[in-house]
Amino acid sequence: MWRTTGTFHSPLTLEPCQDMNTRKPYDGTRRNLLIAMDVGTTYSGASYCLLDPSVVPEIQTVTRFPAREHVGGDAKIPSIIYYGQDGSVKAVGAEATQEGILEKAEDEGWVPTEWFKLHLRPNDKDEDTVDQAIPPLPPNKSAVAVFSDFLRYLFQCTKDFIIQSTPYGGSVWESVEDNIQFMLSHPNGWEGAQQSQMRRAAVLAGLITGSKEDRGRVQFVTEGEASLHYCLNNGCVTPGRGVVIVDAGGGTVDLSSYEPENSGSDTENKISFREMTRPQCYFTGSIFVKDKARQYLQNKLKLAESRFLEDISHICDCFDKTTKLTFKSPNEPAFIKFGSSRDRDPDVGIKSGQMRLSGTDVAKFFEPSIQSIMNAVISQQKSCANKVDVVFLVGGFAANDYLFKTLTEFLKPTGLNLCRPQNYSNKAVADGAVSFYLDHFVTSRIARWHYGIMVITPFDASNPEHVLRKHTSYIHSATDERMIPDLFDTILLKNTSVAETTEFRSVYLRYRTESQIRLHRSESVKIYCYRGTHQTPKWLDQDADNYIALCDVEIDHQVPVQLYRNVLTGETCCKLEYSVILSFGLTELKAQVAWIEGVRPATIIYDN
């Protein structure tokens, strides 16, 4: 049976401070390099920090990329890759949007790939809607393979930027190339399975090797938490009050709520925050505005039997790059300029190469995304025990003035103030991911689900729940007891506040016969999370669809056993007793295995 014995850290104290620049000198003994990569659905970027002993770390942003050299200070490139027919990479990022690239791609049969990040997403109820909106992957290419190609490109761009923009850049790179830590950001709703795929992509990209020792060189941070760190580093802090972070990107909208807490030290004046409620993630980013526009325009042109129906992809691209960005009000018409002055079709509003749309229709394209943000902000506010004053809007979608204006007007009666930090759309997540590594402003997080394992328990004829499930019972071959399977034993309760260093330990007993001992040379425990509505989930058969097998904790070494003889069969049997220790405080699940002789690491395996 499993028993939870973890204890929680008490809240710490925060002295209100407007100056976030309290970073201490790096206390390492050798120079290291930290690189953060923000691979977004539509745009991506990278930031870095050279960690020199006794020097205060400074966050730097990569602002120069191939085919963007003439653009000063541009911290983002399109998340696009062109593949040749043989699967080789032909053009990436800004190179894939150069003039003439479409003609070359068509002539040579290149296959474009965009929005590939969403192919890594978890399965959920919105899967069909998302599948309809995102383009398929290229033939014979997995999502992990495409992601790895983009990581490889971002890494090379970062390397070139550091060498070219740092004094003695070549020597600096040689001194750190074997000591690089990587931070990868991902949406709030992504968990261990997605992190595992991203780490595999990092291995394929050559960022790290596949060894267990190298795994720790890749760490993860949610986009919401990275955005909070960015806001704090840019002076956006409300002393004593909670904040909601809305990271509105291309694919997802991520929401997180935080409040300052005490550091426990008047002398350190340390800034620390804790999550107030579970983060949220919705597939309602800006690409879905384009998808709504495509559905509308396609129907409009099809009904009118317009010859411009064959240009629907180009028209939608023009809407996405100009009309969507400049749209301000449903009270004014909007125009999609896509052709020459000779292109006209008055029946569908096309004159002089541009299509006229009513502002009301365009506003409807935004409506699902805006409504989801409104609902989520109010949900976050209601779930927070303490007062929330400010909502910070970051991410590429945040640059849209219609979105900002509509949300501002909606939030006024609620007492919430909406603001956009400086450079909110260009580098918030990448810079914030570096800060996450350096500063660790967030000291506790909220458990998103119930976590536990399925156990067997001795049949009790006086227990109505056992009697109800007697048909599932069986005689255990090693103990000769009648057992009931599929009892969910909770290790960590949903909505529990978990400090970074908090461990949750559960004791496990397992019995084997002699023949089973020979078959099971290694042991593993399957971790489940419950995502349903029951406050105290108990039996698998009560809500089977909401018990999700999260991962296997594999014990890759010999566990001490206690041998005994079964008095009924005379067979030699054994009892294994050990604890599985789970740490949920950081953004990645970690596990250890313990018994009397000591504690050993365990391998977490995700079924991707």
Kindly summarize this structure in a few lines.
The chain is of the alpha+beta class and 608 residues long. It has 14 helices and 31 strands.
Q: What's the name of the CATH homologous superfamily of the largest domain? A: ATPase, nucleotide binding domain
CATH fold node name of the largest domain: Nucleotidyltransferase, domain 5
Q: What structural class do you assign from the helix and strand content?
A: alpha+beta
Could you name the ranges where pLDDT drops below 50 across 5 or more consecutive residues?
1-19
Which percent range fits the helix content? 25-40%
N-C termini distance: 28 Å
Q: In CATH, what is the class of the largest domain?
A: Alpha Beta
**Overall pLDDT:** 84
Count of helical stretches: 14
Provide the β-strand percentage band.
25-35%
What count of structural domains?
3
Q: Examine the secondary-structure arrangement and name the CATH architecture of the largest domain.
A: 2-Layer Sandwich
Tell me the overall shape: globular
Beta-strand segment tally:
31
User: What is the radius of gyration?
Assistant: 27 Å
For the sheet with most strands, the description reads:
8 strands, mixed
